[in-house]
Specification:
about 120 residues; mainly beta; Lipocalin; eight-stranded antiparallel sheet; 8 strands; about 10% helix; about 55% strand; signal
Length: about 120
């Protein structure tokens, strides 16, 4: 189910496994982030949680096709297998919106993240 992949992105294990970056290249949001997503519309799973990693402002998740960044001001932009999320991090927490599809039926909702 595509939502499981979204969970892998936003919550799949939006931050597991820390990638060390040179001190000069680190962003203020680098580290591991626990992300919980909640579906507000559509037939995707009602909620999911996962760990994602941010290194040099880039978002990754082991075993997931994640592409995303976090700007120096905390602006989050991420995609995973056709699903998209955006939002804002501030200090050790953040939130935003996501949208995607499950079996071709659109889904959307909110996500929340906290630095671990």
């Amino acid at each position: 189910m595509r939502f499981a992949r979204i969970a892998a992105f936003c919550a799949a294990s939006v931050f597991a496994g820390t990638l060390a970056a040179p001190a000069f290249a680190q962003s203020p949001y680098d580290g591991n982030w626990q992300v919980t997503i909640v579906t507000k519309s559509g037939t995707c799973e009602p909620s999911a949680s996962s760990m994602l990693t941010v290194a040099d402002g880039k978002i990754t998740a082991p075993g997931a096709n994640v592409s995303g960044t976090i700007g120096s001001g905390g602006l989050v932009k991420v995609s995973i297998n056709g699903a998209y999320a955006n939002g804002q991090l501030n200090g050790n927490a953040g939130s935003g919106k996501w949208n995607g599809a499950s079996a071709g039926i659109p889904c959307s909702g909110r996500w929340e993240a906290s630095r671990q």
